[in-house]
Amino acid sequence: MQVLSFSSPKLSTRNMVYMAMLMAMQIVLGRFSFGTPWLKISPAFFATILMGYYFGPWLAAGAAALNDQLSIMIFSPGANFPGFTISTAIAAMLYGMFFHGKKVTVLRTLLAVGMVLLISNIILTTLWLNIMGTPWQGIIWPRTIKNVVMLPIQTALSYGTLKAIERIRPHL
Q1: What pLDDT, in 10s, does the model give residues 49-89?
Q2: Is-contact 5 97, C-beta < 8 A?
Q3: At 105, which helix (H) or strand (E)?
Q4: Which fold has domain 11-166?
Q5: Is the dihedral of CA 113, 70, 8, 32 positive or negative?
Q6: Minimal CB count within 10 Å: which of 4, 71, 143, 167?
Q7: 3-state SS assignment for residue 133
């Protein structure tokens, strides 16, 4: 039995429309973020999880990277750092690996969210902020504490959302 999925569906017109809707959802939800530039909380992870669930790791990563660049062009032209695009793509890829074509369980959701929070949010984003000039020693602990607090919250919200989607998926 395969634990992770490394496949993505074919890119049909219907899938492109669904992906575009999820990309728009991610941009809109990303506008509702709050916090400091190095410690933000945002509901945009819902769209990223759904992209991974429906489109697998490769299409979700590509869509998330494209979406990150689109949102930078729309909302903050000139303030582009490609590291954040890599973090976004890795997060979508991890969600796709854990959820695409797999049964949603609490353990699977906890592992997926935990891996994204650790790899993308704590390690990589702190590295990118350090490269941009924010000393990592001053931000690593607040960022770690924030992500540890967010782990059960995002896991519960993700699990509830994906279980609801799992019930209606055959009707899409």
Answers
A1: 999 999 999 999 999 999 999 998 988 877 789 999 999 99
A2: yes
A3: none
A4: Arp2/3 complex 21 kDa subunit ARPC3 (1.10.1760)
A5: positive
A6: 167
A7: coil
